[in-house]
Amino acid sequence: MSPAVTVPAWAPSERLFHERARAELRAGATGQAFSPGPLQVHASVLPLIRRGATGGLEQAVSLIVESPEDGLAARFSLELAGRPVDAALPMLRRGRQALRLFLPEVSKPSPVSVRVAAGGTDDAFDLTVLPVRKWQVYIAQQTHLDVGYTDPQNLVFRHHLHYLDSVLDLVSSTDQYPDDSRFRWNVEGTWVLRRWLRSRPPSRAREFMDRVREGRIGIDALSFNLHTEACSIDEFACQLAIAAKLREEHNIPITTATQTDVPGASQALVGLLADADVPYLSVAHNFAGRAVPYVGEGQLLARPFRWRSNSGHEVVVWYTDSAHGLYSEGNVVGLAESYDATVELLPEYLAALAERPYPYVRIEQAMTWPGLPRDLLAAKVPYPHDILHLRVQGVIADNAPPNPTAADVVRTWNQNWVYPRLRLATNAEFFTAVAERLGPDLPIFTGDWTDWWADGLGSAAREVGLNRRAQSDLALAATVHQLADVVRPADAVHWRTPMGRAMDSAALFDEHTWGAAEPWGDALERRNSGALQWREKAGFALSAYERSQDLLDSAAHRLSPILASPAGPSVAVFNPSPWARTDVVEVFLPESRIRPVGALEVIDEATGLTVAHNVRPQEHERHRPRGARLTFVASAVPALGYRRYLYRTARGDTEALAPPPQLFLENEYYLVQVDSASGCVTRLFDRRLDEELVDSRGAVGFNQYVHDRYAVAANVGHLSSRVSAADWLLRSRVTAGEGRVIERVRNEIYDEVRLSLAADGCSRLETTYRLVQGVPRLEIENRLVKLTSAEKESTYFAFPFSLSDPLTSLRYETTGGADGPDLPRIPGSASHMRAIRHWVALRSRKATIAWASREAPLVEFGNIHLPYSPFPESIDRTQVAPSDIFSWVTNNVWDTNFPVQQGGEMVFRYAVTSVQPDTLPAEAGALTAAGLTRPFMGVLCARSRDAGWPATGSFCEIDHRDVALVALRPSRRGADLVVQLQSLADEEVETRLRFPQLWVRRAQAGTFLEDNLSPLFQDAGWFHTRLRPGEFRAIALELES
Length: 1041
Prior knowledge:
By secondary structure, the protein is an alpha+beta fold. It contains 14 helices and 56 strands.
């Protein structure tokens, strides 16, 4: 029987934390303890300054007194330099009570005597009074937007619209207050504001924007809180464009962004914010869900700081610093409750902040944070400044309503105290003050702030896969539609609004709220409406995917008349990559175009040569269009261009080649051997490099299915946050087996084998391996039907690579460009896993191996880590290597916010390529991923009635392989179109672009918003531009009329 789960004393429950934090403050967060007579006294110096009766400043000494009985008369007095300065004569009650005595403000350390007379005793003890900071506290009121979690999504949105109504009322009701105490509000996300503006009368909208310009309402630039690592770069940019549009339409300032809850963000955020003229970022990380940044270098992260991306972009960051204070720091110290609570708690908090690494947690209590070594807090220094930002919500809750209490608290406070000075503020006000007072001296931290919550992406593998496919397909659809708009504007269609809706759906799925607080519940409302919330959330991914397919289909039909040939019916093969490619293409031939479908001849129109092909019958044919699927390899298709292939009926059909007797696949590039029992590749031999690429001697096979079960109870809220890793947690680990071949195909196009395997956690697992003739790539498809279970589990596919030389470089694609374990990272980032876009490149002195994943983003390098803090390795290091990749495809280790179970049919596609070692990693990775994420588009064309375009052509070519062409899109500034580029290089690069069939008159480079445009130098038809690492740029093109 498994041991019982041990829950640490300090469980990360919000209420429990806040109660304990307040209790610690009330007991005296700093200072020293004494025992005069029958009493226990804790004395400390507080940063609380008032103006005395004579006009001078006086500072406070706090006495926390514990009395053993009621009605005990006592006298407490302070003596400075032998002179009495203050006294109090309370009648004590049993238990704890607080007293404050005052003395003239000191300018240097000064000894005072504290005298206590009680119960017939008269004692004195010495206390050193130090000068205290004259704090300026900026109180930023807002609500944290969870799109769901506390209620179903649409109900949450409606509530937030009402919150903005209330904000305007509260702003007006405090117009007569002193300026510091006037109600101010920070709009965390533009998504709610955009909906509010569309649903309210214009007069109300004007009033709102007037208040923004007045400085009473601040607007933050992000639409909502995102899993930024799940976003494509253009999807991410689209969300920031909402803020840019608001700023331009209403002439309002938007200089800050807020990121709440998600403990980490892609460095793409830095570049996008900087390019959007948003120099400030307010962050509040949530350490739930096994996030433990304090276990490692996170102790070294100072605040505020400058976050610099590898591109050199910077933003100034403020982040909340208490492990569980999150975005309710001000609530803990009473600011949303009452003046009495605030005056009791805030001074103690400020004193602790100035003296302790963390304001609440004593060293001996730090062990209640999972995985924290006892001596680690010694690495963190107390907060050094006298300017502070405190977040306040209406109540301690997600989706909390506005609350006017803080305005009254601040008004009363500032009437009574000179320091700390409190001010209700917008985020912009605070950052402006920081820039003025601390700007030149802020520390700089560089790199990705890797998200600890990225593991949640594995909780919905099917939906994540759909959304990732939508991201790629929407970029392709936008590119083709935009080309069609400029090439044949008379045939324009209504595509931009559906595209915007599809991009919004993709972003709503990548928004950080993936389920209810209790996701296993099935209520109609509130925190346990898990089933309803997940249905809506999953619908965002499905909507994005379905819209992407509609837009792709429409785009292909727009290209058809443009690329049609006068020589006869044809297939125009469109290459979405910015370099020439040879790859496989598949297109549906309807029976209405050619009868009978099957006996065909395919001819390369440019060369006149016949091309090998394969024709397969339509699947599910009784319920789908009549016809067949034509597959062939299209050679040397130009960069972002096309190559046309004629087709016509022919005698006879393509005959399948006899399959070899053993499980060997081969083409001119690779020899692959498969073990049918395990379903794994045991040999992947590169004939060009004379290199074996698979390590078949380790703990796991190549493309091995691995299923882990954990000894942690299901459906217990936040349980995983309270469990530390131990050997017993890994209850079982099972790999797939009992494989058998169910299909073996070898024809002139591809060599393929499909196997069925028995796999724990699945009712079916089928694995397909394919080599395409003429294409240097192994394609892998794992299709499984997962059994639905709330039992804690994970599924991986393992890819142990063999490198005859040591690994010299590892790079992987992220939203913010190429990253790697040797590149800088923000201290406290997650390191046991990564969420990649699509590819990983491994480089040695003899080969560069590239691996790509279409649907599954999560990877672990070199080992499988137990998914509980502190995330230890679970495989003996002698049995694995740094070049091993583990694709973490499913898990349900979360106990809140993410689905606790998933099931049904899922597919995970991978590709592997090897190239010469001098090939740049990004080039190898992009080439490998292109077959999965940017496949050739087959466009069926009727015979053209006019001369038509040439048989082959290019619209855009980029000469640097580390520069990705993201998409072509409409211009925001009146150009004919925009080319979106992103650098995947480690260093700044110069690249050239040309547009052979677009007749470009002028090209300008600027930000993704087309700001700061500058003309590009042109030389012999090539336009020159430079990009920094990870940089996302727009090239605005003006065409000849």
